C-alpha cells in the first residue's frame, strides 16, 4: 500500500510541501530506487536467515519508515523516509514469492505467486482509495499513519499465519551470483522493467490526469482508483493461471494488449465514461505479466531462487523509477496528455524484449 498510496494524494503532498507535481512524483521515483538498491543488497546480507524471521525483520523496517514519513517536516525528510521504507520492499516480496511457490505443486507456482502478490492488488482496491480519501479529508500524513497501522497488522499476520519453512541447503553466494547473471535471466529482468516503467509512467500521475484532463472531482478519482484496483486483481489472478498454462505466449499477448490499451487511453482520457472503462481494462492487463515473470526467473535461477526473485523486484522498481522520472519529464517538456503514448511505447519495448526471450527459449529447445 505504501508504494501506491502517494499517487492518490500527490497534489496534496505537493501543495503542503510547496513543491511541483513533477517534484512530488520523484517521491515515487525515490521509493522505486530504494527497492532497486535495497533488494539485492539485503538479499545478499540476509540469505542465511530463516525466511519467516527475515519477513518479520523487513516488516519492522517498513513500519519505522512509514512512521517517519507521517511526521516528516519537509520534502527532504519525506524523501529519506520513502527511501528507508523501500529498502525492505523488494526483499519482502522476493522471499514471499519463494515461500508461496514452495507450498504448492510445480504446475501451480504462478497461481501461488499471484495469490501472494494479491496483497498488492488489494492495496489498489481498498488501500489506495481509502488512503486517498483519508489524505483528502484528514491530510496526507494521516494516510501514512494508516499505512503504519496496516504494517503492524501485517506483522501480526506473519507471526501467526506464515508457516516455518524447513531450511534447505543453501548454495554458496558465488554460485547464486553466477546463476543471477545468466544473460537470458537478465533479459527477463529487462522485460519486467519495461512493464513497470510503462505502468508507472502513467499511473504515477493518474490523479492530475483525471482531474485536469478528464475533469473528475477528487471523489471521482478515488472511485476510479477502486475500479483500477479491481481490474488489477482480476488481471493478477488470470495472469497467474495463464502463466501456469502457457507462460511466454501469454506474456507476449499481455504486452501487446497493454500497448494497444495505453495508445487508446490517449484518446479516451478526454471522454469520462471511456476513460473509466479504459482504466479498468488497463488495470487488468498491467499486473497480468508479473506472476509469470516471477516464476520464469525462479525457474532460470534454480540455485538462487530467493536472490533472483528479489532481484526481479529490484528490476521492476528500476522500471518504476524510470517511468515516474521520465513521466515527469514528459509532463514538463511535452505535456500531461502525452503520457499514455509514452506508456504505450514502453509496453511495446516490453513486447520486443519478451519476444526475444521466447525466441531464445525455442532455440534452446531445438538444440
UniProtKB/TrEMBL annotation:
<protein>
    <submittedName>
        <fullName>MFS transporter</fullName>
    </submittedName>
</protein>
<dbReference type="InterPro" id="IPR020846">
    <property type="entry name" value="MFS_dom"/>
</dbReference>
<keyword id="KW-0472">Membrane</keyword>
<feature type="transmembrane region" description="Helical">
    <location>
        <begin position="28"/>
        <end position="47"/>
    </location>
</feature>
<dbReference type="GO" id="GO:0005886">
    <property type="term" value="C:plasma membrane"/>
</dbReference>
<dbReference type="GO" id="GO:0022857">
    <property type="term" value="F:transmembrane transporter activity"/>
</dbReference>
<dbReference type="InterPro" id="IPR050189">
    <property type="entry name" value="MFS_Efflux_Transporters"/>
</dbReference>
<feature type="transmembrane region" description="Helical">
    <location>
        <begin position="314"/>
        <end position="335"/>
    </location>
</feature>
<dbReference type="Pfam" id="PF07690">
    <property type="entry name" value="MFS_1"/>
</dbReference>
<dbReference type="InterPro" id="IPR011701">
    <property type="entry name" value="MFS"/>
</dbReference>
<feature type="transmembrane region" description="Helical">
    <location>
        <begin position="140"/>
        <end position="165"/>
    </location>
</feature>
<feature type="transmembrane region" description="Helical">
    <location>
        <begin position="111"/>
        <end position="134"/>
    </location>
</feature>
<feature type="transmembrane region" description="Helical">
    <location>
        <begin position="84"/>
        <end position="104"/>
    </location>
</feature>
<feature type="transmembrane region" description="Helical">
    <location>
        <begin position="341"/>
        <end position="360"/>
    </location>
</feature>
<keyword id="KW-1003">Cell membrane</keyword>
<feature type="transmembrane region" description="Helical">
    <location>
        <begin position="54"/>
        <end position="72"/>
    </location>
</feature>
<feature type="transmembrane region" description="Helical">
    <location>
        <begin position="185"/>
        <end position="207"/>
    </location>
</feature>
<dbReference type="InterPro" id="IPR036259">
    <property type="entry name" value="MFS_trans_sf"/>
</dbReference>
<feature type="transmembrane region" description="Helical">
    <location>
        <begin position="250"/>
        <end position="267"/>
    </location>
</feature>
<feature type="domain" description="Major facilitator superfamily (MFS) profile">
    <location>
        <begin position="1"/>
        <end position="365"/>
    </location>
</feature>
<feature type="transmembrane region" description="Helical">
    <location>
        <begin position="273"/>
        <end position="293"/>
    </location>
</feature>
<keyword id="KW-0813">Transport</keyword>
<feature type="transmembrane region" description="Helical">
    <location>
        <begin position="219"/>
        <end position="238"/>
    </location>
</feature>
<keyword id="KW-0812">Transmembrane</keyword>
<keyword id="KW-1133">Transmembrane helix</keyword>
Amino acid at each position: 500500500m505504501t508504494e501506491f498510496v502517494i499517487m492518490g494524494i500527490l497534489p496534496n503532498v505537493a501543495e503542503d510541501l510547496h513543491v511541483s507535481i513533477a517534484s512530488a512524483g520523484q517521491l515515487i521515483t525515490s521509493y522505486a530506487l530504494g527497492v532497486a538498491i535495497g533488494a539485492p543488497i539485503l538479499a545478499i546480507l540476509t540469505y542465511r536467515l530463516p525466511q519467516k524471521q527475515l519477513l518479520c525483520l523487513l516488516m519492522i523496517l517498513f513500519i519505522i519508515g512509514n512512521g517517519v514519513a507521517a511526521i516528516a517536516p519537509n520534502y527532504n525528510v519525506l524523501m529519506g523516509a520513502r527511501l528507508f521504507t523501500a529498502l525492505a520492499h523488494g526483499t519482502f516480496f522476493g522471499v514471499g514469492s519463494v515461500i508461496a511457490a514452495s507450498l504448492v505443486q510445480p504446475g501451480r507456482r504462478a497461481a501461488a505467486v499471484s495469490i501472494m502478490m494479491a496483497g498488492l492488488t488489494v492495496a489498489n482496491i481498498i488501500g489506495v482509495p481509502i488512503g486517498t480519501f483519508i489524505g483528502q479529508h484528514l491530510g496526507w500524513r494521516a494516510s501514512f499513519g494508516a499505512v503504519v497501522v496496516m504494517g503492524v497488522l501485517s506483522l501480526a499476520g506473519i507471526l501467526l499465519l506464515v508457516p516455518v519453512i524447513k531450511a534447505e541447503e543453501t548454495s554458496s553466494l558465488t554460485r547464486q551470483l553466477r546463476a543471477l547473471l545468466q544473460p537470458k535471466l537478465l533479459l527477463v529482468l529487462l522485460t519486467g522493467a519495461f512493464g513497470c516503467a510503462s505502468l508507472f509512467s502513467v499511473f504515477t500521475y493518474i490523479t492530475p490526469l483525471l482531474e485536469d484532463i478528464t475533469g473528475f472531482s477528487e471523489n471521482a478519482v478515488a472511485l476510479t482508483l477502486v475500479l483500477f484496483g479491481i481490474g488489477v486483481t482480476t488481471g493478477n489472478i488470470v495472469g497467474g493461471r495463464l502463466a501456469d498454462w502457457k507462460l511466454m505466449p501469454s506474456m507476449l499477448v499481455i504486452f501487446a494488449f497493454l500497448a494497444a490499451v495505453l495508445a487508446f487511453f490517449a484518446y479516451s482520457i478526454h471522454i469520462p465514461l471511456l476513460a473509466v472503462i479504459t482504466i479498468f481494462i488497463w488495470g487488468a492487463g498491467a499486473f497480468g505479466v508479473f506472476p509469470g515473470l516471477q516464476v520464469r526467473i525462479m525457474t532460470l535461477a534454480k540455485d538462487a531462487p530467493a536472490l533472483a526473485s528479489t532481484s526481479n523486484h529490484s528490476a521492476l522498481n528500476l522500471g518504476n523509477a524510470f517511468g515516474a522520472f521520465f513521466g515527469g519529464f514528459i509532463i514538463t517538456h511535452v505535456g500531461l496528455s502525452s503520457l499514455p503514448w509514452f506508456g504505450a511505447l514502453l509496453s511495446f519495448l516490453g513486447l520486443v524484449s519478451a519476444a526475444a526471450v521466447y525466441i531464445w527459449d525455442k532455440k534452446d529447445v531445438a538444440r
